[in-house]
Design brief:
The protein is built from ten helices and ten strands. The protein has helices at residues 6-12, 39-51, 59-67, 69-74, 90-101, 135-143, 163-181, 197-205, 239-246, 260-274, and strands at 18-21, 23-24, 36-37, 55-56, 79-86, 107-110, 147-150, 187-189, 210-215, 228-232.
Length: 295
């Protein structure tokens, strides 16, 4: 840091859009449709990043910048990170080819209970019906250089669970992925973006070195590695809004404190969970209507 502290401090707060996608397909199931991006729109978004001079960097490079001033100084002045939640099959069929054609990488966070066994069609699982990856496809993506991370086993609202229920979701998820891939995995994402201090401490103890939230804000080299801010892409995210994000505009830059509304929302959901009438962020995991989830 310079004596005045001005240079690196300003650079460390430069906005980094960590973009959160779910499915990228033409005909998504109704429950995830509001959070699905069409392939042509996704391709245009990738091309806009390139046209605007935004470098797509691996998540690990941003996390390193958040943990080391030297790594922060080496982070491109304008960069973005691509992340995908849940493990939809279209990551293999649609997303990966579009990224590979442009020499780009991404982090894929798996809900392990939703990953199919090779050779099986979609069956009962923690998420409503949708075409999901199987472990053979996950291993192919891993071998191709995409980072595979964890998104729990059953996609719960972690900050409403009792402590004893966190182990299979946080530690168990990691063990399952490492058993399937045969190597260590370190990147985690909270379902729906929900965490809380106790959940973040448990995540760190489980060996995850980064964890992504949502927060609808930019990350930065000054952001918290265990509460990385992301911007969620929706079906109605238009070109103008995406261009603002690519320019580092239109959202707050992390780190920023939790607001009273966020704390109140967590308390309300916890109360409902204790009363055994939990807030349903997802429709039931069978054909049914309901509101789509976030994250």
């Amino acid at each position: 840091m310079s004596p005045s502290g001005a240079g690196p401090a300003v650079r460390s707060a430069a906005p980094v859009p960590v973009l959160l996608y779910h499915s990228v397909c033409e005909e998504p199931p109704a429950w995830i449709a509001p959070f699905t991006v069409r392939p042509r729109a996704f391709a245009r978004q990738l091309d806009l990043l390139a046209d605007r001079g935004v470098a797509v960097v691996p998540l690990s490079r941003l996390v390193a910048a958040q943990r080391s001033p030297a790594a922060a100084a080496a982070l491109p002045a304008r960069c973005a990170v691509l992340t995908f939640d849940d493990g939809f099959a279209d990551f293999h069929t649609t997303v990966a080819p579009l990224l590979a054609a442009r020499g780009l990488t991404a982090t894929l966070y798996l809900t392990t209970g939703a990953v199919r066994r090779p050779g099986r069609t979609a069956g009962p699982g923690p998420l409503p019906p949708a075409a999901m990856l199987d472990w053979d496809r996950v291993r192919e993506l891993d071998a191709a250089g995409f980072e595979i991370g964890g998104h729990t086993a059953t996609h719960p609202q972690l900050d409403t669970l009792p402590p004893a229920a966190l182990a299979p979701e946080i530690e168990g998820c990691r063990r399952r992925i490492e058993d399937e891939l045969g190597h260590r995995v370190t990147a985690f994402a909270y379902p729906h973006g929900y965490s809380g201090p106790a959940v973040r401490r448990r995540t760190a103890r489980a060996g995850w070195t980064s964890a992504a939230a949502v927060r609808q804000g930019f990350s930065s080299a000054a952001d918290e590695p265990l509460r990385i801010a992301r911007l969620m892409l929706r079906a109605d995210t238009g070109p103008a809004e995406f261009a603002r994000w690519a320019a580092g505009e239109g959202a707050p830059v992390a780190p920023f404190p939790e607001g009273a509304r966020t704390r109140g929302w967590r308390a309300w959901r916890r109360l409902r969970a204790r009363l055994r009438v939990p807030y349903e962020a997802l429709p039931p995991p069978h054909p049914a209507g309901g509101a789509a989830a976030r994250g």
